[in-house]
Design brief:
This protein is mostly helical. Helix 1 crosses helix 3. Helices cover about 70% and strands about 0% of the residues.
């Protein structure tokens, strides 16, 4: 879950993925945001999730998705 959050956050922060305000995805992200932004219990969890997110994005980019 943390890996997916990091991936989506990266895409939305870079404006690669733009969520329509009020859409189901926008609402889901808004529900998850406080939980994920509160912090990770262990720093290693956050680092691992970010590394996995980068690996996921590299795979998607290799398939021609995202920049």
């Amino acid at each position: 879950m943390l890996m997916l959050w990091c991936s989506l956050k990266d895409l939305t922060d870079r404006k690669v993925l733009i969520l329509w305000e009020g859409s189901a995805m926008d609402q889901a992200i808004r529900e998850l945001m406080p939980m994920c932004q509160h912090g990770f219990k262990k720093q290693e969890e956050g680092v691992a999730a970010q590394e996995q997110a980068r690996a996921l994005l590299r795979r998607l980019q290799a398939e021609g998705l995202y920049r």
